[in-house]
Amino acid sequence: MALLNLASQRTTERTGRAAVAAVAAMIGVAFAGSTLLTPLYVVYKDQFGFSQITLTLVYGAYVLGNLLALLFFGHLSDRLGRRRTTLPAMAIAILSALVFLFADGVAWLYAGRILSGVSIGIATGTGTAWLAELIGRKDKTLATATATSVNFLGLAISALIAGILAQYAPWPLQLPFIIYIVALVVVTGLICWTHETVAHPRGFRGISLRPNVSVPQEIRGEFIAPAVTGFGAMALVGFFAAIGPTMLAQDLHVTNHAVAGALFFQLAIIVAATILLTQSVPSRTAMLVGLGLMIPSVILVVWAQVLASMGLFIAATACCAVSAALGYRGSLQVVNQIAPEQHRASVVSSYFICGFSGNALPVIGIGAISTMASAVIADMAFAALIVVFALAALAMRVIYKK
Questions:
Q1: Core-most of 69, 109, 310, 385, by most CB within 10 Å?
Q2: Distance between CA atoms of 117 and 113, rounded to whole angstroms?
Q3: Distances (CA, A) of 127 to 65, 130, 191, 259
Q4: For 73-108, how does the pLDDT look when each residue is reduced to its tens digit (9 = 90+)?
Q5: pTM score, whole prediction
């Protein structure tokens, strides 16, 4: 009997690890769709003949999909179950990749980005809550570190592969999406067999699709600081994902698409490594250190642009990566800690609304300012915005310190 119990326990542990791996892979692959275009924007810009403001609008279009998903569908997995919410998200991601695969104009890029935003928005809140439940409700630190690190691993690998393919392989605007569709199909198959953690999933009857941000009143004050931190951290990532390749080409005169992909790979891989290596750092401490580093990080970016220094730009990228990692991991972990169990997906989705808005809206602002003034002035305005948000988040943390 003891041997049977031990064998059963080991089987359960293996099943649990497989489930965690499948959900983690889903999060990574979902986010990969966000930066698969990073080294391709310059190629699209040349091929379709659009302006810098259009480029930033195409990049930021997915925030519309994010907001639609998180506002209207972010709470559904608490009711329907994690698996039944994730599978449609994967189907939408596949549809998005198909749109990019056959794109022959700017309208296709907008449509693909919006669909990508919807899929990522649904998968993010659901996957993060799912991981927290699979790993264990008492170990939110590991769950958060896993979710955030695989997120950036997906971003890093997709940008690097797309850059290499765009520079050295045939069909630069098709081959990356063919590979991505295969990865999505494989992950969808794994999710079909992954353990459901919602004890009693309910049906679609009676579901309300009214916007549901759902941050309970008792945690709203404490929610502000991590939400603002998430906005700032993801704004740094968005800057490098959308503006980085153009900055390399125009200001540093580096036109190699593989280098553009490698630069974002550096950013994202440092973010993932920092998240994993700083798990022992308390969440609130990580959040505060990340906020503090945002200020010198954006100053370094502008300085590198003014001096047209590749070495300084690489250093600025690393500094931004550490800041974004600590700010993102710390703030998301704080949100996981303060969220009531019965509203976890809704609260996490509310946090990601702030994060995704930060990832796209400042980038659109940079594009608009750069059409009226120089790129350096636009980036200075971005730096000033990040400084303001960092100081605001620090102030809110002091006010609501517990």
A1: 69
A2: 6
A3: 17, 5, 11, 31
A4: 766 777 788 888 899 999 999 999 999 999 999 999
A5: 0.82
